[in-house]
Amino acid sequence: MKATTITIEFIEEEKSGKVIVEDDGIGIPANIKEQIFERGFGSHTGFGLFLIREIISITGLSIVENGIEGKGARFEISLPPGTWRRGSG
After folding, report:
1. Average pLDDT of the chain?
2. 6, 30, 31, 87: least surrounded by Cβ within 10 Å?
């Protein structure tokens, strides 16, 4: 089943925050949740999620996948204090 919906949400947790990106696709099997972030993993070049994790880690952010297989993928990007701010709008 292909994903038909993608949801992006921001959650404030005291002074830190989280950006959550999730879909309603098939999800990621539990046994490869960390492997998807490794260089070369996957059916194409294997740079996509590897590069994302590397780039955001430079700014002190982190990313994990914690969706449920069969219900969709869910990526959480953690934003430590000082890396985000609330807009005036």
Report:
1. 91
2. 87
Distance of CA 8 to the CA centre of its chain: 10
Calpha distance 60→29 (Å, rounded)? 27
The arrangement of strands across the sheet holding 74-79 comes to 6-13, 16-23, 74-79, 62-65
CA torsion 59-62-63-64 (nearest 10°) is 170
Instruction: Give the model's pLDDT for residue 81.
Output: 92
| DSSP character at residue 27 | -
Q: What is the pTM of this model?
A: 0.86
Q: How many CB atoms lie within 10 A of CB 52?
A: 15
Do 66 and 72 meet the contact criterion of CB atoms below 8 Å apart?
Answer: no
Token pair in block for residue 62: 């982190």
